[in-house]
Amino acid sequence: MAIPDFQTLMLPILRFASGGAERSTADAVSAIAGEFMLTETDAEQLLPSGRQTVLRNRVAWAITYLKKAGLLEKVRRGIYRVSARGESVLSSHPSRIDMKFLEQFPEYVAFRDLRHTSAAEAPDQDSAGAATTPEEGLDSAYQRLRVDLEAELLDQVMSASPAFFERLVVELLVQMGYGGTLREAGSVVGKSGDGGIDGIIKEDKLGLDVIYVQAKRWEATVGRPEIQKFAGALQGHRARKGVFITTSDFSRDAKEYASIIDSKIVLIDGVMLAALMVDHNVGVSTVRAYEMKKIDSDYFVED
C-alpha cells in the first residue's frame, strides 16, 4: 500500500494521541504503519535525499500542523499529547482533518501567513494529486531539474567529436577515482585499439589492478556481438575487469551476456553516463545551492 500523504495522516495521529496519552513521533510512525498496514519496504522508503524515511517525514509534518492549530500540545522535548481543543474536535467525529479544516483556528492561520508563500496556503501536490511535505516538494523539484539536465547533457555529448568524447571518458573515470591522474589516464585510454579495447586504466591510484575500457559514441543500440568482442579481448589479455561505455543503450541480449560470463564487465549506457557526469561534476557547474537546516534541540537544553 502506498504511504498516505501527510494531510491524510492528521486525523489518525490525533486519534492516536487521544485520551491524554503522551506520544512521540516514533510512536506515531509505528501506529500509522500498523493502521495502514504498510509493509517493511513501505516504512523504510527514503526521501530522494536519503536522509529520512518518507513515512517519518509525513508523520512529523502532520504533527507540526496539528500543533500549530492547537490540537496537539507539547509536553516536553519530543513528546506531545492531545489538547482540550483536539479532544473537542475528535468528539465532533470529523471525517477528515486537513489544512483547509485547520483554517478555522486562528493560531494556524497566523502560522500559515507567517510563511509568506502561496505554497503554505495550498500545499504542493504530486502527480497523483496527493499533498506533499515541503521536503518532498524540494526533492521532487530537484529531481525534475536533474532529469532535464541529464537529457540536455547527453545531447551535448552526442554532438561532440569522438576526440572530445574520449577526453570526457578519461576525466569521468579519474573523477570517479580510477586511472590515477588525468595525465596518466589520458596516456592509456584511447591508445590501445587492440581487439575491441580502447584503453587500459588503473583500478586505483597505486595501480594494483587494471580495468580495460571500451567507449562508443553511438546512437544505435549496442548488441551482444559487441560485448562478446570486448569479452574476447579481455580474455586475450587474461583480464577479468572491463567497462563498456556508450552514449546509446544496450540490448537485452547484451545485458544478459555480460551478466553470465566470468569476466566482470560493467555496462554504462547514455542515461547512466549522464547521471555519473552530474554526480562527479563533469561538464556541469553549480549555479545555486540550498542548505536544509533544522532546530538544534541540544542548543536549547539549559543546565
How do the helices and strands follow one another from N- to C-terminus?
A: HEHHHEEHHHHHHHEEEHEHEH
Number of strands: 8
Strand line-up across the major sheet? 4-5-6-7-8
Unreliably modeled segments: 116-122
- Described by the principal axes of the CA atoms, the overall outline is elongated
Helix and strand composition category = alpha/beta
Describe this structure in words.
With 303 residues, the chain is of the alpha/beta class. It is 46% helix and 14% strand. It is built from 14 helices and eight strands. The strands form two sheets. Strands 4-5-6-7-8 form a five-stranded mixed sheet, with helices on both faces. A three-stranded antiparallel sheet has the order 1-3-2. β2 and β3 form a beta hairpin. α2 packs across α4, α9 packs across α14 and α12 runs parallel beside α13. The longest helix has 26 residues. It is elongated, with a radius of gyration of 27 Å. About 2% of the residues have low confidence.
List the helices and strands and how they pair.
Elements: H1 10-16, E1 23-24, H2 25-35, H3 40-43, H4 54-68, E2 72-76, E3 79-82, H5 84-91, H6 99-102, H7 106-114, H8 118-121, H9 134-159, H10 162-175, H11 182-186, E4 189-194, E5 197-202, E6 210-216, H12 224-236, E7 241-246, H13 252-260, E8 264-268, H14 270-279
Parallel strand pairs: 6-7, 7-8
Antiparallel strand pairs: 1-3, 2-3, 4-5, 5-6
